[in-house]
Specification:
Elements lengths: L2 H4 L12 H13 L6 E5 L6 H13 L13 H7 L6 E5 L3 H14 L10 E6 L6 H12 L5 E7 L7 H4 L3 E4 L5 H14 L6 H10 L4 H12 L6 H8 L4 H13 L2 H13 L4 H15 L4 H18 L5 H17 L1
Parallel strand pairs: 1-4, 1-5, 2-3, 3-4
Helix pairs in contact: 2-3, 3-4, 5-6, 8-9, 8-10, 9-10, 10-11, 12-14, 13-16, 14-15, 15-16
The structure holds adenosine-5'-triphosphate (ATP), magnesium ion and zinc ion.
Length: 334
């Protein structure tokens, strides 16, 4: 089992970075106040939408709620966890079978009351992929809410969901997970797995995963195959530069010696570091240190923005670096 699956949260309390959502849901589950029948969860990939949908499905059915969290041990929670009930249906709208299921499940079956659970739950993942026809069918169904049927819709692309559907759901906006919370989460997984990791490596992974928890956990999984989780192994496995390398490289550019800089570019490239990613990482780093030297930060941001803009069009990415850095040096020695 992958670490991302192994550490998929099973309660609202263990979802990280989405307190603004989980607190509301927990309160609604325990008080039954302002309860809705339909929920729409949207936000960036890998931030916990599908995870929250499953937890919510359990909470709506749990026989022994724990402060709004599903208990995961009662008969209903277990049936959902083990996929043993027909009252819990998960449909992936992005797949062909998803479309077929929607026809069958929504039009034909949603009208029947649940057989074993308190509430029949439909989780429709990637709901933005539904056809116009399927959206209409869904709309018809949710227009006549029934107490014992709930729809939980999840999507990364809310723009593609019709307003008529959105307006009939309680909508939750998942956020990118903040770097500190991510680092804390990764450290706890590392400890539970008895892996060894440096703080720098954890921070680097938190950063390059760009707030996507699934990717961050996946990187821990992949890099740990090489042994300890350190910056060298991250570079080797993921083709990502360490913070130290980025700082050194910027230092060299500030020094202004073209020959030394160009040799470094080749060295970075030969290490298997993806130069497109390297440029993005460097920009992120500059953003963090911007105030330390505003003039240099401004100029070098322009140079790296240039690199990112051009790199796709050249078969040899190192050249793009050299041309842009050469211009940078010329501008600054005039
Ligand atoms: N907020 C979170 N807290 C803890 N773990 C998380 C969180 N978000 C994602 N994960 C981890 O990432 C994995 C995938 O999460 P999930 O499937 O819920 O993401 P998603 O938002 O539905 O992504 P997608 O948009 O790609 O479908 C989980 O199994 C879990 O390990
Ligand atoms: Mg999902
Ligand atoms: Zn339960």
């Amino acid at each position: 089992m992958s670490l991302a699956n192994k550490y998929r949260p099973q309660t609202f309390d263990t979802i990280i970075g989405q307190n603004h959502i989980t607190e509301i849901l927990k309160a609604q589950m325990s008080t039954h106040k302002q309860m809705h029948h339909n929920f729409l969860l949207f936000g960036p990939r890998g931030t916990g939408k599908t995870t929250a949908a499953r937890i919510l499905a359990k909470a709506l059915n749990c026989l022994n709620l724990q402060d709004g969290n599903p208990c995961n041990t009662c008969a209903n929670c277990q049936m959902i966890n083990e996929g043993k009930t027909l009252d819990y249906v998960e449909i992936d709208a992005a797949s062909h079978t998803g479309v077929e299921n929607i026809r069958e499940e929504i039009l034909d079956k949603a009208a029947y009351p649940p057989a074993s659970l308190k509430k029949k739950i439909y989780v429709i993942d990637e709901v933005h992929m539904l056809s116009k026809w399927a959206f209409n069918a869904l709309l018809k169904t949710i227009e006549e809410p029934r107490d014992n049927v709930c729809f939980i819709l999840a999507t990364t692309d809310i723009q593609k969901v019709p307003e008529t559907i959105i307006s009939r759901c309680q909508v939750f906006n998942f956020k990118k997970v903040d770097k500190n919370e991510m680092s804390k989460h990764l450290k706890s997984i590392v400890a539970q797995e008895e892996l060894i990791a440096t703080d720098e490596a954890i921070d680097l992974i938190a950063k390059i995963s760009e707030w996507c928890v699934r990717d961050a956990v996946k990187y821990i999984d992949q890099v740990s195959v090489l042994g300890n989780i350190d910056e060298a192994h991250i570079t080797k496995f993921l083709g990502v530069a360490s913070e130290t390398l980025i700082k050194d490289f910027l230092g060299l550019i500030q020094g202004g010696d073209a020959k030394i800089i160009f040799e470094k570019v080749d060295e970075i490239h030969n290490q298997g570091i993806d130069l497109n990613n390297f440029a993005k990482q460097t920009l992120m780093h500059i953003d963090e240190i911007f105030l330390e030297d505003i003039q240099f930060s401004t100029q070098i941001s322009e140079t790296f923005t240039d690199i990112i803009g051009n790199i796709r069009y050249y078969p040899y990415p190192a050249i793009v670096y050299k041309v842009a850095i050469h211009k940078h040096i010329q501008r600054n020695t005039k």
